[in-house]
Amino acid sequence: MILLTKKDFSIDEAVSALRHRETGAVVSFLGTVRGFTGKRRIAKLMFEADRSAAQRRLKEMRLQAIRRFKLQDVVIIHRLGTLDVSEKIVLISVAASHRGEAFAACRYLIEELKRSVPIWKKEYLMKGEARWVPASRQRGLDD
Q1: CATH code, 93
Q2: Closest among 96, 122, 87 to 6, alpha carbons compared
Q3: Terminus of the chain with fewer CB atoms < 10 Å: N or C?
Q4: 70 lies in some domain
Q5: Do residues 38 and 134 touch, judged by C-beta distance below 8 A?
Q6: Is residue 21 in a domain?
Q7: Which 3 state secondary structure label does DSSP give 142?
């Protein structure tokens, strides 16, 4: 399942959808809005996307991960719109026969999402300032 949504989502529902007879491991990554970046205090974040391009890339990533890591299934959910501190941003959950493949696939998917999916982040600081986050910071290169 691939989902870009402005609505909150249920982690339990996403994980439950991954349980299959062949599944021995479900590994998830949950990204949330933290209240700081460096020394700056964050009030909220806003996420925008090129929806059709993002959907297309997420579907490609899902299929690549299923083949590469021999997964049973993958769920990727990313929120759009304005989110407050501690709200859920992104969930990646993978189901595999073994934990090694599940952990590796989950790590691969979040790194690939940050590297190649057209989703942009704007930070709103407690001081009232707002700024678009440079791509290198979104990818964790200087964060």
Answers
A1: 3.90.1170.40
A2: 87
A3: C
A4: yes
A5: no
A6: yes
A7: coil
Tokens of 127: 């001081």
DSSP, collapsed to helix, strand or coil, labels residue 125 as: strand
Beta pairing class for 2-5 and 71-79: parallel
Selection from 65, 83, 78, 67 nearest residue 27 by Cα: 65
Distance CA 87, CA 32 (A): 5
The parent domain of residue 79 ranges over: 2-138
143 is a domain residue:
no
**pLDDT tens digits for 112-130?**
999 999 999 999 999 888 9
For 49, the enclosing helix (H) or strand (E) is strand 40-49
Whole-prediction pTM: 0.92
Beta bridge partners of 92: 29, 76
Helix (H) / strand (E) element for 38: namely: none
In the chain, the number of structural domains is 1
Whether the pLDDT of residue 78 is over 70: the answer is yes
Q: Specify whether the CB–CB gap between 94 and 63 falls below 8 A.
A: no
